[in-house]
Design a protein that fits this description.
Blueprint (H helix, E strand, L loop, with lengths): L2 H15 L3 H8 L14 H8 L1 H29 L6 H17 L12 H11 L4 H15 L2 H19 L6 H17 L1 H9 L10 H5 L1
Helix pairs in contact: 1-4, 1-5, 3-4, 4-5, 4-6, 5-6, 5-9, 7-8, 8-9
Amino acid sequence: MTAFAIVTVSALGYLLGSVSGSLVLGKFRNVDIRAMGSGNAGGTNALRTLGWRFELAVVLVDLGKGALAALLALWLMTSVFTQPPTAIAGGCLAGFFAVIGHIWPVYFGFRGGKGAGTAVGTIAVLAPWCILPLLLVWIITIVGTGYVGLATILAGVSLVPAMWVFGPNPLPMPLGMLAVALAVTLVFTHRGNLARLRQGSENRFEQARLLRRRR
């Protein structure tokens, strides 16, 4: 893959990722979600502060931009740069930088969300076999603990074994590198959640704690 192709797909991913769903949609309501609730421009804060309809729209935008970044990069690599053997590497680069753009969006003062939704959109295109295992880990953790942040961290970490266990053999190196990079990034962006868990001050999503309700 040429240096020009690397820069192009990386920039494409970053600029698409910088289109923050909660911040763009919040402008139609004349609100900045970063001044509400936890101050995070992500789906969980959107749900807690502005309701499930707004949160659903935010999630769709954030998932969509990760998927779109990966798809456009795959198309560019095969159609424009005529480099089909390295197309998956281009998709991984664009998808990862879409997550980076979501976290540090150039259009919104580099203050965005935590990147989970955009990461899922990227994985849905490049490694769809990982979606069900990640979803199961997320749901089981939510039902058992009520901690959304913990569920996202564990789902992100589980991406690494899921990529190898359920993926093609041999696994393309760019996909393995993407899995590790996304897992590390999600742990980093949720470091505040981990700190609050240690302190016992992390907020629970009580409505999701089905196991507790049945006891």
